[in-house]
Design brief:
About 45% of the residues lie in helices and about 25% in strands. The protein has a four-stranded mixed sheet, with helices on one face. The chain is an alpha+beta fold.
């Protein structure tokens, strides 16, 4: 029996960071539904500006976690031009907590 789980979809960068801080290796989370590269582009996106910027932040945070070797990024096609974007945790849970800490440090620096 597998202990991995797919959480509900996260909507903000903070939610993704909190989820990463609690996730165990093998856990998966949907961080976006749609066509990310189009939906984050100001010239082509049909998303409201606030949602478009949130999608950019989510994609950026997922990419950072991937570059740190903490997660694998997965796309699942659900229809024409529509995908589920997932992060799948790999490695040590203590390493994942660094993503959350880094996020809070970035916010602190922006507010300083």
């Amino acid at each position: 029996m597998s202990t991995s789980k797919i959480c509900a979809e996260v909507k903000t960068e903070d939610e993704l960071c909190r989820w990463l801080g609690c996730a165990l290796p093998g856990d998966s989370c949907v961080y976006f539904r749609g066509f990310l590269m189009i939906d984050i582009d100001a010239a082509f996106s049909r998303l409201p500006e606030e949602r478009r910027l949130a999608a950019q932040a989510l994609g950026r945070r997922a990419q950072i976690a991937h570059e740190m070797g903490l997660v694998s990024l997965v796309q699942r096609r659900v229809g024409p031009g529509s995908y589920l974007y997932l992060v799948q945790v790999r490695g040590s849970p203590t390493k994942v907590k660094r993503v959350e800490t880094s996020q809070h440090n970035l916010k602190r620096n922006k507010n300083a």
